[in-house]
Amino acid sequence: MEPPFPSPTRTWHNDTYAAIDPRHPSNSRAGKTVIVTGAGSGVGRETAIAYAVAGAEHIILVGRTKSTLLETQKLLLNGPSRISVCVASVSDLEQMKSVAEAAGTWDIFILNAGHIAKPSKIHEADMSDWWASYETNIKAILIAAQLFIPNANPSGAYMLGVTAGGVVLAPEHVAGLSAYMTSKTAQIKIMEWLGSENPNLFTASVHPGVIDTKMLRDSGLSGLPYDKAVLPAHFMVWLTQPKTKFLKSKFIWVNWDVDQLCEQEKQIAESSTMTINSLGWPYSHGDDPRTN
Questions:
Q1: pTM for the whole thing?
Q2: Domains along the sequence of the chain with CATH
Q3: What does the chain look like in DSSP terms, one character per residue?
């Protein structure tokens, strides 16, 4: 379909398609250890399923609710993967230490857990609820970096942060969601830093599309066309392979066509496109406010 939002690709996807299908031999993840946070429902559950279909050797399901993690595990038991369930809050250092011990050396880490505060104006927000977005969306990345990067596969590992496309919108278009959008903006920049600091670690921030989840319903956003949950799951399987290195540290939407992205490999790799920056910078001389 034609892109409903600005897009670097001519084709826009709402559902999975052949190039990202985890059943395709080119998307095999045999032998890989995969960690998925927020794995008890929604995008996290679908992502765990996708990596199982792709033949991952070991999938570690992380989340706060044991019952939902066990539901996800049950869906994977007939597949080829060994499944571990780790009940932990991603913002709790001690609990995540146990996850790191269970994982050992890992290949792929999907940072999918998130928190969205009740919509409100900043000066009227419940401070604990507002700050919880930063605990889950930002502190969790710091914990993951410090506990897991030392044990990343030295031959190459992948860490993907599930973010929000709404960070590109003006506040009036996502009214009341300051905690979520600002924390997700910071998350994108942190993933850029992690990629820069770790040459053998591929990082990227992934907008999962508009998925009918509890988090979306809690946001109060409505009237948006939904995408299928398998789209981000399959896209992330595709993204975690060597040929995508030109997308390292980029902010990517799963709706973009992967073949058309690959056609722009050199342009994307050598520019600041798909990163968080200040609009208009670097300024041309005529736009330099110091000359006006």
A1: 0.91
A2: 18-265+275-291 (3.40.50.720)
A3: ---SS--SSS-B-SS--GGG-TTSGGG--BT-EEEEESTTSHHHHHHHHHHHHTTBSEEEEEES-HHHHHHHHHHHTTSSSEEEEEE--TT-HHHHHHHHHHH-SBSEEEE-----PPP--GGGS-HHHHHHHHIIIIIHHHHHHHHHGGGB-TT-EEEEEE--GGGGS-GGGGTT-HHHHHHHHHHHHHHHHHHHH-TTEEEEEEE------HHHHHHT--SPPP--THHHHHHHHHHSSGGGGGGTT-EEETTB-HHHHHTTHHHHHTS-TTS---TTPSPPGGG-GGG-
